[in-house]
Task: structure prediction
Amino acid sequence: MAEIMIIMEAIAYSHEKNLREVRIISYSRTALNTLNSLGERRQIINVIKESVNNNIELCWVRASQGQFGNERADELAKETPSIINLIDLAPN
Result:
């Protein structure tokens, strides 16, 4: 769920800054599959789906040590569990 929260923050940032073209890169295939799934009942997932528009592209890359930005992404993901407790993750 940490990766989903990071994706949500990236989307919010892109909206806040009015970015025209955004590519969010994730090595969590599970997170991206969850966001692409039909019939998802968790509110947080549906909020993210509704906030994605045509200028945002979600991309999967294979995780590997030393890949550009990978270490920073790992650091941010480790900070996220404290945020998760503040958000309702239960199905509607």
In short: The radius of gyration is 13 Å.
